[in-house]
Amino acid sequence: MSKQLAPTRQNSITTSMAERYGMEPQAFEQTLRNTIMKPEKNKEPPSQEEFAAFLVVAHEYNLNPLTKEIYAFPAKGGGVAPIVSVDGWANLINSNPQFDGMEFQDELDDNGAVIAITCRMFRKDRTRAISATEYMEECKRGTDPWRQWPRRMLRHKAMIQAARYAFGFSGIYEADEVERAFDAPERKSSGLAQRLEARRASPLVGPQEGYNAAAETIEGEILAATDETQAEYIADAHQQQTEGGEAQRQTGKAPQYSDLGRSQEDNEEMEGTRQQEQGISDNPLSQGATAIWSQLDPEARKSLDEDSKAILKLLMEDLAKVSNPKAAKNALTGHQKSIRAIGEQSFSELCQAAVTVRCAQLDGGK
To answer: Which of 57, 83, 109 delimits the end of a domain?
Structure first.
């Protein structure tokens, strides 16, 4: 008589996680749904698929949802986002076999207030540390934790970013960055989509008196736009080109800084930078600034436009005046707004390279 094998039960992610913590699957799921995944008022609870996806992330990173190392947060577009607490991030970092310690460095202004914190993460299989710097101006929010413990909050931000760079954590978030997404204002519609839809529905007509071929071309591009954002961008471009052309006819001078990617505030700041740069153009760079310039990548220097070159020249002149590496980093911080206005990662890296060159010069002069 042949023996019958007992049927095997398929091991689901819920069962696997429940067994890890010595619980029955049903009780484990109910506990999580009533604690870390409890829906907000008038909101739908997470679906079975969303619950399973959350557990997959917790299982992948070996994080304990019962101790809130990881928990669920309702995502802005629906569903849930896996949030890892500070304790969870610390667990992830310390559990990695390649982790070899970390260091923090505070950067202070002249009044002793923190302006930035750098976290340096060390790996056993790397010869150099991996670092990330977070700036108070960019990160601070009006919430109670940021008001009461600004240094601690900024230190957490720096640690988490350095951990991402060092160990490649993905698919997980920290609470502060998810809350920022909720705080971001909704983009208001200008009503252009409705106007375009009405225009599309209207019968086409031929050229009338005063027909403008250029305007018709722009209008055609607007009508062909695939979404409202693209249509508004084209419409704004046409308006700026029209206003710029009128200004040029009246003054005989082409308008500057017509880059649509920059705000009016950025353009005004860039104009101020250009005026300062004009004085530099009339006079050669100082010897100290020239020494920094000569050490930068020639190809990167060659690719600079006038705006970028103006900002870099001002930065190098400031760097040439400092006497220690800390002051050099503070000089870079003072130019961050102008650097961000350019909006190019390569330019930001070139400015950082200028600081590195100056720090090396200062260290070599000791």
So the answer is: 83
